[in-house]
Amino acid sequence: MRRWLALMACVVLTTGCVSVSPSSNKWTIESRVDIQTRLGLSYMKLGRLEPASLALGRALALAPNNSRANHAMALFQLRLSDRAAAESYFVQAVNTDNDNFSARNDFGGYLCQTGRIEEGLVQFNSALRNPYNDALYISQLGAGACYVTVLNWKEAERYFLLALVGRPTLALALYQMAKVAFSQADHLRTRAYLQRFFDSGAVSAASLLLAVRNELQLKASDLVLLHANRLRAEFPESSEASDLTRLMTNAND
Q1: Residue 210: which domain range?
Q2: What's the pTM value of the predicted model, to 2 decimals?
Q3: Distance between alpha carbon 37 and the CA centroid of its chain, in Å?
Q4: pLDDT, tens digit, for every residue of 107-139?
Q5: In degrees rounded to 5, what are phi and psi of residue 21?
Q6: What is the Cα–Cα distance from 220 to 79, expressed in whole angstroms?
């Protein structure tokens, strides 16, 4: 037990535990694959791509059909911008474990980002039907974002609202709903969702710029100034701050 706890500390903290080679008589193949996959993901999170590649390669050498290891390798290949390789690992991940909803979410996002909307939605809907999916809001957000790419506001809104049913203060869903409302020129609803977004404690340069644009449409000069000043103060080097300067210049012409 002590050896296991020490090993997991290495996985979580990645403090110098570069490799793990448990002897085959004490560790199952499944345990060894899980450890190497966790190591690979931890290294990738730290930006240490070479040891990440080695760890994930060891995991797949032990179990080429392991769904979680293939999913992790797909994410690694995306990090390297190798889409063809990433897709092959995604396919293997979902084909070898139909219940891997996390892999389906990431695969769906990848497909939607590359313009393959229908294929992406198949992955999200499969994840949503999975009775073991304990993070439905991620699948709902993904499906909603997929519909946004094809400007299907009605379906996008349906999925974002589903995410908010279970998590009313989910910042990303609130922001996405604000964007959907703004795209439909529903400026009062845009204001309401942005206010809920800010009340949740979230803020971003993009959300503040959207707030400025929305309040300009509502001719609420005091709120325009409020959001503009906050954008300049909190995100002075952002591209949105530069866009704000042009926006305000045009608004004053």
Answers
A1: 168-253
A2: 0.82
A3: 20
A4: 999 999 999 999 999 999 999 999 999 999 999
A5: -130, 70
A6: 43
| H or E element, residue 206 | helix 205-217
What is the pLDDT, as a whole number, of residue 253?
A: 62
CA–CA distance, 8 with 14 (Å, rounded to integer): 9
Please check whether residue 184 lies inside any domain of the structure: yes
Positive/negative CA dihedral, 55, 60, 63, 67: positive
HEC secondary structure over 148-179:
HHCCCHHHHHHHHHHHHHHCCCCHHHHHHHHH
Look at residue 134 and give its three-state secondary structure: coil
Structural domain includes residue 242: yes
For residues 40 and 55, the answer to whether their CB atoms sit within 8 Å is yes
Residue 39 lies inside a defined structural domain of this protein:
yes
Single out the residue in 84, 99, 128 at which a domain terminates: 84
The size of the chain, in residues, is: 253
Q: What's the mean pLDDT when you consider all of the chain?
A: 90
Q: Is residue 228 part of a domain?
A: yes
Domains of the chain: total: 2
Instruction: Give how far the C-alpha of residue 215 lies from the chain's centroid of Cα atoms, to the nearest Å.
Output: 29
Return the percentage of the chain with pLDDT > 70, whole number.
90
